[in-house]
Write a structure and sequence with these properties.
Layout: H1 2-25, H2 30-56, H3 60-85, H4 91-100, H5 103-113, E1 119-127, E2 134-138, H6 149-160, E3 165-169, H7 180-197, E4 201-204, H8 211-218, E5 224-225, E6 229-235, E7 238-244, E8 247-248, E9 251-252, H9 254-263, E10 271-275, E11 292-295, H10 319-322, E12 325-329, E13 332-336, E14 357-365
Parallel strand pairs: 1-14, 2-3, 3-4, 4-5, 7-10, 10-11, 11-13
Antiparallel strand pairs: 2-14, 6-7, 8-9, 12-13
Helix pairs in contact: 1-2, 1-3, 2-3, 3-4, 3-5, 6-7, 7-8
């Protein structure tokens, strides 16, 4: 559906720009010119969005995509039309046209640079009772339709950091309908390469993948999909319990609540961790009962406004927690990855102020 949103941006830009030229040349007051151009722009945007939604169905991502392209394509185009054809141009309109061009580098950066500017998010958490440090690698929300250089680079960088265990908190892929059988082997090869370097790898599902998908991708690789299960192992001389809960649609099944109850039990001495796609899985836990909740899902909001944070996080946890990193919520340490990939489909595929990341969580001995 991208051609609809591109068409929206072009129509808005050319129509509002042409209208502004007409009114400027007729000597209309600058304030009315701006209001008129905005009215035409909003009207065109609404019409094109409605047409696009007829094909895509109810999709908030499509609306966001239209608005984004209107801002970074339509506005500069309108400014260019005015500068090229209007004469004379009132100072206020001239200033508006010049400012509109600032959207071009912002759009280029948000679409083509920051989404691929991968960083390592390294945090440290003190845990009582461990004898030797444990390094956990986190790869969240790879969320891609295929494996390319960028995804392979993320895995290479993680391997170089030598984690003791790697976890994938959901949304490993966002393969288009009907393409899974064709694309799945690429993901299997990626997992195999990781397991060759870090033999202990666990996954849970998210919204764009299913437990069945992950079983097919990981079959024969040595990686393990946790479906409302608890895995107990020894890591660097420490007893380590990892519970993984599965999403069923938009919620957790009773089996997820049971797995959370078991990981909270005092009958499981040692390090206790819950792996879930959403940080909202905190509601499965009682206060101060596990050592860590590891999640992804929010992408850090994908867009973060300076001094405010992400306006949209698709999560009920506080915005500063959903923005990513290590926090404490209800007495439980919660790590939220900003993710490696970004939302696909009809969504605007951008990041601004929220770089993608692979996570490194060093569990160190507490008091």
């Amino acid at each position: 559906m991208n051609y609809y949103v591109i068409a929206a941006a072009v129509i808005v830009g050319s129509a509002s720009g042409a209208a502004s030229v007409y009114w400027i040349n007729r000597g209309v007051h600058a304030g009315w010119i701006v209001l008129g151009a905005l009215g035409i722009g909003v009207g065109c945007t609404m019409v094109l969005t409605a047409v696009a939604l007829l094909f895509s169905g109810r999709d908030g991502f499509m609306v966001l995509h239209v608005v984004y392209l209107v801002l970074v394509v339509g506005m500069p185009l309108a400014g260019a039309v005015v500068l090229a054809f209007a004469s004379p141009i009132p100072p206020t309109i001239l200033a508006f046209c010049i400012v509109s061009f600032s959207a071009i580098p912002i759009g280029i950066y948000a679409t083509h640079i920051e989404p691929f500017w991968l960083r390592v998010d390294a945090v440290e958490l003190m845990v009582d009772g461990i004898s030797k440090d444990i390094r956990i690698g986190v790869v969240a929300d790879l969320q891609t339709t295929s494996i390319g250089d960028y995804e392979n680079e993320a895995i290479d960088r993680l391997i170089a950091l030598e984690p003791d265990i790697v976890v994938f908190p959901g949304d490993l892929h966002q393969i288009k309908s009907g393409q899974f059988e064709v694309r799945a082997p690429e993901f299997t090869q990626l997992v195999e390469r990781l397991v060759d370097a870090v033999p202990i790898v666990y996954l849970v599902n998210g919204h764009s993948d299913t437990v069945t998908d992950l079983w097919q991708i990981t079959r024969g690789t040595g990686a393990r999909v946790l479906d409302n299960e608890i895995e107990t192992l020894e890591l660097n001389g420490n007893l380590f319990h990892l519970a993984g809960v599965s999403l069923a649609g938009r919620d957790y099944e009773p089996a997820a609540w049971k797995a959370a109850d078991r990981i909270e039990s005092d009958e499981l001495p040692g390090v206790r961790i819950l792996l879930a796609h959403e940080p909202d899985a905190i509601r499965l836990l009682k206060e101060e009962t596990v050592d860590l909740l590891i999640s992804g899902h929010t992408h850090g909001g994908q867009v973060s406004i300076p001094f405010f944070g992400p306006p949209i996080t698709a999560s009920r946890v506080p915005r500063d927690v959903a923005a990513g990193g290590l926090h404490e919520l209800h007495g439980i340490p919660v790590y939220v990855s900003t993710g490696v990939g970004r939302e696909r489909g009809n969504a605007p595929q951008l990041r601004f102020g929220v770089r993608p990341s692979i996570g490194i969580i060093d569990l160190v001995a507490g008091d």
